[in-house]
Design goal:
Elements lengths: L2 H12 L9 H24 L22 H15 L3 H4 L6 H17 L4 H7 L4 H12 L11 H10 L1
């Protein structure tokens, strides 16, 4: 940015309503502060810019960069259904019984933390709104309902994360 562009931006900024009642001296203080602040920021940003070539960035297949495919999600759901002894079709359904909600909550949290899936993506898989998934994630964070301190769901959660 040239000095002419800086001053044009400054003129526009000083025409804003909250600068109208300033004296000539106060306007000069703002002008100098803006100019010096801009120069310092420009100098600081030059030091911290690093250019990375595209070849330097490599994605590993086993990291969370990859989205989990349908088979991985189905495998996770099957593991949870076996552990908690609930039928898979009911876990994927709309039923609001406690043991089914617990299974869904466990799956939501594992998908969120292990695979870093977005809330809408998880909700889409379960035919749910993203706010429902958000509620499951917040339930774990706040240690509410199924996620209280001495519950067995924590052990299941840790073992599923490590699988």
């Amino acid at each position: 940015m040239t000095s002419a562009q800086i001053f044009s931006e400054l003129r526009v900024a000083l025409k804003a309503g909250h600068f109208r009642d300033l004296s000539y001296l106060e306007k000069n203080i703002y002008k100098n502060a803006f100019r010096n602040g801009y120069k310092l920021a420009k100098k600081h940003n030059k030091k911290n810019i690093y250019y990375i070539r595209a070849k330097q960035i490599r994605k590993k297949k086993d990291t969370s960069f990859n989205k989990p495919h349908k088979g991985m999600i189905d495998s996770l759901i099957n593991k949870v259904c076996i552990r908690l002894e609930v039928p898979k079709d009911q876990v994927l359904g709309k039923c609001r019984k406690g043991h089914l909600i617990q299974a869904r909550t466990l799956i939501h949290n594992v998908l969120r933390e292990k695979y870093n899936m977005s809330l809408p993506m998880i909700g889409h898989y379960f035919n749910q709104d993203h706010t429902t998934v958000l509620n499951s994630v917040q339930m774990k964070q706040d240690k509410r309902r199924f996620w209280k301190d001495n519950e067995t769901i924590w052990k299941d959660f840790q073992s599923l994360l490590n699988d």
